[in-house]
Amino acid sequence: MRKLVILGGGYGGLAIIQGLLDDHLPEDIQMVLVDRMPFQGLKTEYYALAAGTATDLELRVSFPKHPQLTIKYGEIASIDLEGKQVLMEQSDDIIYDYLIIALGCTDRYHGIEGAEQFTSSIQSFSNTRKTYQQLNDVKPYGQVNIIGGGLSGVEMAAELRESRPDLNIAILDRHSRVLSSFPSKLSLYVEHWFQSHDVDTRSHVSVDRIEAGGIYNGSEIILSDVTVWTAGIQPVRVVQDLQVAKDPGGRIILNSYSQIAEHPEVYVIGDCASLPLAPSAQAAGAQAEQVAEVIHSLWRGDTPKLHPLRLKGTLGALGKKAGFGLMGKKAVLGRVPRLLKSGVLWMSKRHLG
């Protein structure tokens, strides 16, 4: 038997399992999925779990079942590329013939003193649960600051406003406007939504230190009961420790087949991979589908046919009744993109489940 090991049961990991199972899986292939959790967490909706508008159970998706798929739970300590094995922290190591790294990302703190110790995270299911508890415990009229005005920060602030109208909420961002990578029309719409819902948006904030109860913007101290960090991501520690070529963001540089060039039996998917696309669940899913096709072609002895990775667009939520989106170069605003996002989530849960 040949063993194909998939590290990570997120969007990329499950998409490649589905892609491999949708085609004819050779009878001598045994797949092993390794994850710390007994289910997939819908990471794009973690902001709702943190805000208290979605339950833990709503964001779980069961792993697939198949005779050629085994699921192993546990924490990964490291990956031995030369020895072709995954070293586990408290269980037996796993030997592989093929390896797929789809471990996702963690927060990137940019060397800011106190950021890791004194901010809350929504990058893992466990940390999001803790963030919910911290936000839930803030007393009325307390101050919550969200550092980072990208998609995650915007959705977090909007959802928290719906959940806790009694709180003072602010987004702190180093750029001139929230959603700075999006068209100005879209950004302006979101800014107006925040103004009408009493969410403060502060631009050109350069955080250089964070302490318990306070954020330092140069000589200014911004008081904070809870500070949520959404100001950057990076690959998880196991990937950071790999001695392979990486881009400036720490993501692994791959060949055209999404393989590590020196180790063609190893594929990297999603947030750990250096791609011409911004990290997202959609990008991970699209790349995973392509990698599944590549693997099947190579198993058949064919030359893989590659197609450009294309995304359908970006959708964001402003609470449960408003949203925004970018379809190609066209901005869509208001109720429609929010309904579209709800529909995409429903279809995703139905497909993955």
From TrEMBL:
Domain FAD/NAD(P)-binding: 3-285
Cofactor or coenzyme needed: FAD
A GO term, aspect molecular function: NAD(P)H dehydrogenase (quinone) activity
UniProt keyword list: FAD, Flavoprotein, Oxidoreductase
GO BP term (any one): aerobic electron transport chain
The UniProt record lists the keyword Glycoprotein: no
Entry keyword annotation includes Transferase: no
The organism's place on the tree of life at top rank: Bacteria
Family assignment from sequence similarity: Belongs to the NADH dehydrogenase family.
Designated name of the protein: NADH dehydrogenase
Originating species: Paenibacillus glacialis
